Amino acid sequence: MWRVFNFVFKAMGSPCQLQFYAQSPQQAEQVNSLVVKRIAALEQQYSRYREDSLISRINRNAGSGVKTAIDPETYALLQYSEQCYQESEQLFDVTSGVLRRLWHFEHTQVPSTAQLQAILPLIGWEKVQWTDTHIYLPYPGMELDFGGIVKEYAADVAAGLCQQLGINAGIIELGGDVRIIGPLPNGRGWPVAISDPRQPRKTVAQFELKSGALASSGDYERFQLIEGVRYSHILNPKTGWPVAGLRAVSIVADQCVVAGSLATIAMLKANAGLSWLQKLNVAFLCCKSKGQIVNKLT
Questions:
Q1: Measured between alpha carbons, how far is residue 114 from residues 54, 93, 117, 121, 280 in Å?
Q2: What is the pLDDT of residues 143-170, one digit of tens each?
Q3: Domain containing 108: what range?
């Protein structure tokens, strides 16, 4: 008999939840174990916080003349990074993580013009040298950072793994981003909600999702207050400054990685983000700078 099982765990620095229907506790435990293991392997491979990760190895080799070998999965993520870079008019740039050195929670002052001018030459996806087998960052201090992709990608991978293991009804949430494994046994969608970016306990939209994914990006995730001004953690790679214009964007798409990157690109486009979204054939909810909600989820 099929019954629902719920598992809570932590991965990629975020609280995560896996909920699905299985025929037995043994099957449920096995599925959960394999999913958690697969997500941990992705974190091990792509986390910038781990000294022994592939990303850290790539970054350590920057400017050294040593290319780093990559596998097909990493090559696919690089191809997706290229696509995001082009679609965003060079705003979604996986080499822009170096800006964290200047915009850090512990800092109480905004960076100087000189500091920004010193670090901006290290940014630029077009400078990265890569093939299907190797990658090289040509300048010392350059960094690759899949932080804007890998959590959402992991949700898609986990959902696919569940389906392979015979799970047809389920939902996975990784740090607020949701991927549907399959609809509820009665055919209805899983209930999902979007919170107000300034009042997390207040719901601005609630609906059912039968398939696909929901991912969000916004200045509520991480931000700095410097002299009373709120600075987003989402940084423009061309100027080095935090973006300002939208509070938050949530996207519904077939894949979580697509929903997440579209939401981030809209945030990066600042005041032009809403009009850009409206031209896409995509379901979205946008919270503008003064709190107005634009709901195009249906």
A1: 32, 22, 5, 12, 38
A2: 999 988 999 999 999 999 999 999 999 9
A3: 69-136
Does residue 121 belong to any structural domain of this protein?
Answer: yes
pTM score, two decimals?
A: 0.94
Does residue 75 sit within a domain? yes
User: pLDDT tens across 44-103, in order?
Assistant: 999 999 999 999 999 999 999 999 999 999 999 999 999 999 999 999 999 999 998 888
